[in-house]
Every structure is written in structure tokens, then in C-alpha cells.
Specification:
Two copies of one chain form a homodimer. Chain A is of the alpha/beta class. Chain A folds into two domains: 133 residues, Aspartate Aminotransferase, domain 1 (Alpha-Beta Complex), CATH 3.90.1150; 238 residues, Type I PLP-dependent aspartate aminotransferase-like (Major domain) (Aspartate Aminotransferase, domain 2, 3-Layer(aba) Sandwich), CATH 3.40.640. Helix content of chain A is 40%, strand content 16%. In chain A, the strands form four sheets. The first copy, chain A, has a seven-stranded mixed beta sheet with strand order 2-10-9-8-5-3-4, sandwiched between helices. The first copy, chain A, has a three-stranded antiparallel beta sheet with strand order 11-14-13, covered by helices on one side. A two-stranded parallel sheet of chain A has the order 1-12. In chain A, a hairpin with a 4-residue loop joins strand 6 and strand 7. In chain A, helix 9 crosses helix 10, helix 10 runs parallel beside helix 12 and helix 10 runs antiparallel to helix 13. Chains A and B meet through helix 1, helix 3, helix 4 and helix 9 of A and helix 2, helix 4, helix 5 and helix 10 of B.
Chain lengths: 383, 383
């Protein structure tokens, strides 16, 4: 049904990301009985390796589902009806946490920051001081919808001093930017497979601290499918059938990650992010986040120049250059575009994306010197 | 890590089942953006095709998760705390429904039948007559744990006359035995991918009748991730990232299913089931279900002969013949063995399994004439 051309579509979006053919091939291995020793051992081994990426000694579970399943598990296992959760909101995915909290009868105390702006950690501190009945704090590490990285480590220092749990979504950063679950005092850390881990979507992960277990044990738990107590109790940490082929893919993706080295991988993401930002600015575009220090290292968001139609620009990128970049979400639709540089993205991908973006912009009437963005990116990459 | 030999392991278990290499290869296609038209259309098309297998005009959703996710969705979207659910229990998976009901605060009215025995439909009728406050009835169509097929159509006729919803687990029968969601009045029908559909695990499906929607609309819904209202509302019927590669696999598996023809496929399963039963009896073993009319067409359960160790028998099957058959679950551990003949199983698979089982039984000291089971199976298959 799809042309060959489409299978070479270059994914420069914030997920799903380019999956290495080695990982794809691993997924086409024959399936094996999931309760036999061979698979169980391999499965638990991947959970152990994921702990290294989370930088945690906490329990970690692999779930059959999307990243949202892990976000759901973090809330549904810990929050009782009527309990207050401080939700730090500055984008679509941090909003999702408020929806989940409300869904489970919790009271979402929203601390809103304008999308694209920095989170003021002092305000977080103030709300926690004024509300000693807050049971958990939710924060999205890397807000995919705005291209902003949030100060989880700083927030962790504050939350640590309270009885509240720190619940963090690292879906679009884990494996591409620094996360340190134990050092940052993250009690429940949720992630998905299809971003920086560079595995197709369909498997999620969550880590659970002792502080979190103490709460979970006293909570009835709202979900059957996502009940973490069941996961812990099961000897394979998998009470229901695992997504076997996805686990095969994850294994090979983790092989590749450890071969590259996690720190090298993070450095690569940082360099590509920097090159993308310089390139974008170089061609006369404005970054969307209010300042560069808070820009994400996995996705760059930029303002669509006044009077231009992002759909047209993205259409040219896709139809003419076979590159897909993302538009904005919710009220940022038409206002921003987002370039993902996650997972397996390499220097040439960033360079061709910038070069084609210049051409696409020119085509829709934007004034720029061709090569001006690419040159700036090259200057970063030559280092 | 695994030897080549293991990749030829013949799966004669009730899931996961043998996946066709064409399906496996489809899963190794590059991932595509899940929100782009190309994928969305293909995704919705697979849901439409699934409706044909469910034989329903009801809404149908594909979920990222295992079959249990669909079972959970059926209960968590319809049952309010304190509400009564009649759970017809005669095996491990029908027990699971009681657990899910209790998890969501419902009152599970258990109607227990001995594992392996026929469900008495009159008793179901009686409980429903005596309890007009029962909101739903759960039944497992094909009890994987016992190899018994339950009379869903008969139960449907009774439930139809009440306000209760009929919730059916068809995880281990859909695509291998006759299911007629609309004709049988099934309000919520849950299935998984790794059984008769012959796709690896990781994608589930659920159909929802108008009668069910009327209840769902008045129910708050316990789950965020599995909230069916969100699925219906979303234009792609997928509020969260779909398991893209699994959908690719499902597509090709459905291509194959429609090429074979659903009725032909069901006839094949019936014939293989009959051959397996005759083979098993022919070698002097006893079927576990109390009578042959209730035997499953997708998995055959047989009694382990007195004094023999099923682990030893299954060990020989696996180590010497590279065939895996299943043991019993819960209190049937050590008492029964189960041979799956689901999905892509063909005549030669059944014949070699029976032939090897004879050898394995002989090895552990069981008295039988070699070839006696195989011959009986051949007599069925020659027709």
C-alpha cells in the first residue's frame, strides 16, 4: 500500500523516531512462549538495563502499552479520591497529568506557567509550603509540546523535604538527556519506547521508589491492568502477557545504546540540539522557548514567521524532501513547528533537515540567505 | 543469545501462537508517524476488518496492551462501585473477570462451575431472575485454562431479555472459532492478538454495543488509559500512540485471514481440534472436559495419566522434539496438559505433536502402541 519512497521518510518529529533496522529485524524474530525461562530471563534483563538508563536502584517494570499507560500507573496506584496533587502545567503533556489525576478522583492543584516559559521553582516551593496535604507533585521533564526542558532536579530537592511523591514523565527525554532518578529523588518515573529509546511504540516503563511503595501499599489502586502491586508480586514482574516482539526490539536498541555509551548518547543529543537551534536562528527564525537555557535537547520548537502557513511548509518538507517535522499542538497549532532530534538522529539528518527547511521557507516567501542556517549548524558540528 | 534451533520451536500452546514470517517481516517495516493520514487510514481499516471477524456493526477499538487490557476496559467503563456483576466462573480466565470486578468496587456474584464441566445455562437464568439488579454478566467464550468452550449464544439469549450487559472474553477463540457478536447479543467483546489471530502479543480489541454505550455514558469510568469514551471521541479512535509495528503485523495477519476465508479458517480449527482429540484418545489418554461437545476448538486439554509427571513429558517434548505444549494452571497444575491448535497451526503440526507425544509418553513409562494416536488423527484428516 505504501510506496518504497515512504519507507525512507525521515522522521524529524518528537516521536515516533527512526528505528534502526537491526531493531526492526529483531522484532521479526519468531515469538517464543513468554512464560518459559529463556524469555523471562531476557525480559527481566532488559528491565535491569533500563534501570541503568533511569540511574536508579528502584524497582522498574515494563508495561505493554503506550507511555500514557505508565503515566496512568503512576497516578492510579498512588492517589486516593479527594487527595491533592500539585500538577505543574506548561504544555500538553503536563496537562495530561491533571486529566489523569481528575479521572481518579484526585484534586489537581494546577500551577500553570505559560507554554514556552520557564517554571519558577520558588512558586512550586510556595505551593507545597502552603499545602501540607499535597500527596504528589507531577512534572514533565521534557515538554514535547513546547520544546522546553523543566528543572526536575531542582523540584526534586524541594519535594524530597515533604511527604509528597515526585512523579515525572520522562517519555521524550529518557535515553537522550540526563535523568537521574535516584539523585533527583524521583519516586515514580514514567517513560515510553518510541522517543529517545528508538524502539517502536507499544512498551512503556515505570520506576517505583520505596517512598512510593509505602503509599501504593496503602492505596487501593484504581486500575486492574496497571496495578503495580500485581507487577511486583509476579515472579517475572509481568502478570499479563508481555509484548514479546517489542521486548526483542528493546533488547537490541539497548544493546546499541550501551555500545554507544549513555553519556556519549546524551552528548550527541545535546550537540544535535545545539546545532539545530543555531541553524534555526541562523536562517532568521525565532526559537519558541523564552530562553535558550530551557530549550529541550531532544526537540527544538520554533516560531512560525508571521504570515506564513506551517502546514504549507511542512507539506513541502514531506512531499518534496520526504522529511517530516511536527506542527504545534493545542493553541500552538499554526504558531510553532517542532523538529525532533531524538534516538538515532545523526548529524547528516539535522543538516539535511535544515537545508530543506531553508528551501521550503524560501518557497513560501520567507526572506533568507540560502545556507545561512546550515552554516551555523556546521559550525557547531565541526567541533 | 538464542540458538537457531530455538527459533524453530513449534508452539503448540494456547498462545502465543506461531506467527507467519510474512507477519513478522511486516513488523520490521520502518515506523511511520502515527498521526499522519497514511497510518491513520490503515489503522482504522484494520479496526473495520476486525469488525468482520467479530461479526458486528458495533464500534470496535484497538488498544495498545495485552488481552487483559480489553477485559479491564469492558468492566472499568461500565461498572460503578457497589454494582452487581454475575461472573460465570469455570477456569482461570473467568476468575480474572471476578478480580477485575472487585478491583473496580463491583460486587462479583460468582456462579461457579467445576473446571472442565459444562455451564448450566438454566442456573444463569435463575440467578438473573432472582437478581434484577445485576448490571452485567461476564463469560469466557473459550476457557484457555480448561479447554472448554462455553455456550455464549445461549447465555446471550437470556441476558438480552434483561438490562444487564453481556461481557465476553473471546481472547483464545476469536479468529479460530465462530463468534457472532451481534447475533449473540454480546455488548462488550474483548480479544487479544496472540492467539487465533496469530499476531504477537501487544494489541487488543474490544467491541462496544449501543446498549453498552448507554451505560458507559452514565458511568464515570475508572480508568484513564482504558477510557472508551476517549477512544470514541478521538478521530482516529486512538487517543494515545498506537503500537505501530503491531498494527503492521495485524494488517498482514488479517490479509492472510481474509485470503483463507474466515469460515474456512474456523473449519480448519475444528478439524484440527477433532484430529487432536481423536489422537489423544487413540493413544489411551482421557480428555479433561467432561464431554466432547464442550471441548474447545482451539485448545485441547487432556488428563495426565496417574503417576506420570507432566513436567517430564513436556520437558522431553521441548528438549528432544522442539515442541512446546502447555501444562495446567492453578489447581490443574500437574493434572492436565494442553495442546494449542490455534492460528497458523496446520495438519502436519498436529500430526508431529501427537507422534512425539506418543514417544515422550512411552519414554516416561506409559503403556501405549506407538502410532495409535497418530492413526486416529489421520483418519480425521484424510476426510
Amino acid at each position: 500500500m505504501e510506496s518504497k519512497e515512504n519507507e525512507r521518510l525521515l522522521l524529524m518529529i518528537p516521536g515516533p523516531t527512526i528505528v534502526d533496522p537491526k531493531v526492526l529485524r529483531a522484532m521479526s524474530k519468531p515469538v517464543t512462549p513468554h512464560r518459559e525461562k529463556e524469555f523471562s530471563e531476557m525480559f527481566l534483563e532488559q528491565a535491569e538495563r533500563m534501570k541503568q538508563i533511569f540511574k536508579t536502584k528502584n524497582d522498574l517494570f515494563l508495561l505493554a502499552g503506550s507511555g500514557t499507560a505508565a503515566m496512568d500507573a503512576a497516578i492510579s496506584n498512588t492517589i486516593k479520591p479527594g487527595e491533592k496533587v500539585l500538577c505543574i502545567v506548561s504544555g500538553k503533556f503536563s496537562e495530561r497529568f491533571t486529566e489523569i489525576v481528575k479521572c481518579y478522583g484526585g484534586e489537581a492543584v494546577e500551577l500553570n506557567f505559560e507554554w514556552g516559559k520557564e517554571i519558577d521553582v520558588n512558586k512550586v516551593k510556595k505551593v507545597l509550603e502552603e499545602n501540607d496535604d499535597i500527596k504528589a507533585v507531577t512534572v514533565v521533564h521534557n515538554e514535547t509540546s513546547t520544546g522546553v526542558k523543566n528543572p526536575v532536579q531542582e523540584i526534586g530537592k524541594i519535594v524530597k523535604e515533604t511527604n509528597a511523591l515526585l512523579i515525572v514523565d520522562t517519555i521524550s527525554s529518557l535515553g537522550g538527556d540526563d535523568i537521574n532518578v535516584d539523585e533527583w529523588n524521583i519516586d515514580l518515573c514514567a517513560t515510553g519506547s518510541q522517543k529517545c529509546l528508538a524502539v517502536p511504540p507499544g512498551i512503556a516503563a515505570i520506576s517505583v521508589s520505596e517512598k512510593a511503595w509505602n503509599v501504593i501499599e496503602k492505596t487501593n489502586g484504581h486500575s486492574y491492568y496497571l496495578n503495580l502491586k500485581k507487577y511486583r508480586k509476579h515472579k517475572h514482574h509481568a502478570p499479563y502477557t508481555q509484548p514479546i516482539s517489542m521486548v526483542y526490539g528493546l533488547k537490541v536498541a539497548l544493546d546499541m545504546m550501551f555500545e554507544e555509551g549513555l553519556e556519549n548518547r546524551i552528548a550527541r543529543h545535546r550537540k544535535l540540539a545545539k546545532a539545530t537551534r543555531e541553524g534555526v536562528k541562523g536562517m532568521g527564525l525565532k526559537l519558541f522557548p523564552e530562553k535558550e537555557e530551557i530549550c529541550s535537547n531532544t526537540v527544538t520548537s520554533l516560531c512560525v514567521p508571521e504570515g506564513l502557513d506551517d502546514k504549507e511548509i511542512r507539506g513541502i518538507m514531506k512531499d518534496k524532501y520526504n522529511i517530516v517535522i511536527a506542527g504545534g499542538q493545542a493553541h500552538l497549532k499554526g504558531k510553532i513547528m517542532r523538529i525532533g532530534h531524538m534516538g538515532n538522529v545523526i548529524e547528516r539528518d539535522v543538516l539535511c533537515t535544515l537545508a530543506c527547511l531553508e528551501l521550503a521557507l524560501k518557497k513560501v516567501g520567507f526572506t533568507l540567505d540560502l545556507g545561512s542556517g546550515v552554516k551555523k549548524a556546521q559550525e557547531i558540528l565541526k567541533k
